[in-house]
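Technical annex, item 7. During the second reporting period the consortium partners agreed on a shared format for inverse folding records so that results from different sites could be compared directly. Each record opens with the tokenized structure and is followed by the designed sequence. A conforming record, contributed by the partner at site C, is shown below for reference.
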């Protein structure tokens, strides 16, 4: 790792350390005092503040989880088995090491440096199916990958020996991304999958869904399968929205059933979108951890007020059970009272049915009364310290290097990088002018306008550009970008550029604020408006372009685009 990269990682580590200290000293005492871990989540550990993000793969048997990992790493790993029949029956963590080696589950849980100790509560049957693999790969220098056993479509004849949904929940809670894979070739959602989807709901913001092996079916079938998957997920997932579904084929085999270039481009674009989301995980990590600590702090604060209120309402000696049952039954009224008295958002309260279930088995005599000092510490942290940490996290995130190597470095350079680019970015990695392929057809239009000395006037250009039916504000911006030498005339290259930008806009792409180098006409590379010459703003040039009445406003011969558009510079 370079010196600059090391400094960037150290900057992120400082933010995470500071966030850890804030949680441990401000939030954790409130959690422990009101036993928050018995209701919802265990305390955050040192591993939760690790600067190395984790992705967790979940899916039914033979959906391509192991092949997906091999694709990311661009290599195999010890114990890897890829076959048509179910092959992965263990939870497998893949991390960086100096040499390739395998660590079994019991040794992994006993290793304090790995911080998987809490998995011991699920019993020996789980630990027998848990292993850690260390490999030399640049991908896992900044990333940990966890594979999981295939989800069963029929649970009637198979017993795992441990609580599989709870283990999935544990890994999902500690992961930064959950990749849920489905097989486009044989889509099915079984009983165990329904349980897992329910478990993943509370971490729905981490979930990314992949419709894998999409090249094994034709384009028409792909749309049918995609629609069926969205229908199933919409019915099964108890969530207000369904996470994005990425259509892809994550292996190094040829695209078998893709008969058109459009279908190939679709799969490549979807694949690159997912890789980009994963590639930037280290950069987003600090802000996501900060967001989680804020969310957790608000939940703990609300939990503390509820527990203290229930404690206050309980009698000292007689009819305790009757009073407990009455409080649980009228929990909605208690929510309203606590919300009004302490000015708490209703969105911070746990679901009533979930909290009622917890209270039925809870010992009210162990509940604590209200301790305002602990709550004030959390309130002060949210008000004063979190904004400072937010600024630090944003700065560290902008400096943190992205994941490199493996699939994250393939195709980023060379002629195939264009598969990942769109809009005005197309051609940015090429030494040639991006408009060169379209210029011949634009030249026919240009020369039909009878240019004088190789240039056409703004009136001639206006008539052609107006055929696009784009708004005046957009055409004005196109003109400013295309008239690169600011002479209020267009030569053949500038005219081709103008029509090319119009084409991009009609395809739904955004126009750049400044002309990137790969779009600058070749004859004008390095040329800009002369010093001291009045540089026409969008309003001035666009008014001339459209041949409309124009009222000049501004100062110094310059005009801001937003002022011109806001004041209605065009008058018919």
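Designed sequence (site C submission):
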């Amino acid at each position: 790792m370079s010196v600059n990269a090391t400094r960037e990682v150290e900057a992120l580590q400082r933010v995470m350390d500071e966030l850890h200290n804030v949680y441990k000293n401000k939030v954790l005492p409130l959690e422990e005092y009101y036993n928050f871990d018995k209701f919802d989540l265990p305390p955050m550990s040192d591993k939760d503040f690790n600067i190395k993000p984790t992705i967790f793969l979940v899916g039914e048997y033979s959906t391509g989880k192991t092949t997906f990992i091999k694709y990311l790493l661009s290599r195999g790993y010890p114990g890897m088995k890829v076959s048509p029949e179910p092959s992965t029956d263990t939870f497998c963590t893949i991390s960086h090491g100096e040499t390739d080696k395998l660590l079994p589950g019991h040794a992994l849980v006993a290793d304090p440096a790995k911080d998987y100790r809490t998995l011991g509560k699920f019993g020996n049957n789980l630990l027998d199916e848990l292993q850690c693999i260390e490999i030399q790969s640049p991908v896992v220098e900044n990333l940990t990958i966890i594979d999981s056993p295939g989800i069963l479509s029929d649970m009637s004849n198979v017993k795992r020996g441990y609580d599989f949904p709870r283990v999935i929940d544990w890994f999902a809670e500690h992961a930064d991304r959950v990749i849920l894979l489905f097989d486009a070739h044989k889509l099915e959602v079984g009983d165990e999958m329904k349980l897992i989807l329910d478990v993943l709901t509370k971490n729905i913001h981490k979930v990314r869904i992949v419709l894998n092996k999409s090249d094994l079916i034709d384009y028409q079938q792909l749309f049918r399968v995609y629609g069926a998957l969205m229908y199933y997920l919409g019915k099964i997932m108890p969530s207000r929205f369904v996470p994005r579904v990425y259509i892809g084929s994550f292996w190094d085999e040829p695209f078998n059933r893709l008969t058109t270039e459009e279908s190939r481009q679709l799969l490549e674009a979807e694949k690159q979108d997912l890789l980009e989301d994963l590639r930037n995980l280290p950069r987003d990590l600090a802000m996501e951890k900060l967001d989680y600590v804020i969310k957790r702090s608000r939940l703990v604060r609300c939990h503390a007020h509820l527990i203290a209120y229930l404690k206050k309402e309980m009698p000292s000696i007689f009819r305790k059970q009757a009073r407990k049952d009455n409080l649980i039954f009228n929990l909605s009224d208690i929510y309203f009272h606590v919300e009004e008295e302490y000015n708490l958002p209703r969105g911070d309260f746990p679901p009533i049915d979930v909290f009622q279930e917890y209270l039925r088995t809870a010992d009210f005599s162990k509940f604590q009364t209200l301790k305002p000092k602990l709550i004030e510490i959390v309130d002060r942290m949210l008000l004063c310290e979190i904004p400072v940490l937010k600024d630090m996290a944003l700065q560290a995130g902008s400096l943190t290097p992205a994941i490199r190597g493996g699939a994250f470095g393939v195709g980023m350079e060379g002629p195939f990088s264009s598969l990942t680019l769109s809009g005005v970015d197309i051609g940015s990695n090429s030494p040639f002018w991006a408009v060169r392929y379209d210029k011949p057809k634009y030249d026919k239009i240009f020369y039909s306008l009878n240019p004088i000395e190789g240039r056409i006037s703004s009136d001639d250009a206006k008539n052609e550009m107006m055929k696009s039916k784009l708004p005046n504000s957009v055409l004005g911006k196109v003109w400013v970008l295309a008239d690169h030498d600011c002479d209020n005339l267009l030569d053949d290259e500038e005219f081709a550029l103008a029509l090319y930008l119009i084409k991009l806009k009609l395809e739904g792409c955004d126009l750049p604020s400044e002309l990137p180098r790969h779009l600058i006409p070749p004859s004008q590379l390095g040329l800009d408006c002369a010093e001291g010459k009045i540089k026409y703003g969008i309003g001035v040039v666009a008014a001339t372009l459209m041949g409309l009445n124009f009222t000049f406003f501004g100062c110094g011969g310059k005009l801001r685009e937003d002022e011109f558009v806001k004041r209605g510079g065009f008058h018919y």
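The two ends are 62 Å apart (CA to CA). The chain has a mean pLDDT of 81. All partners now use this format for quarterly exchanges.
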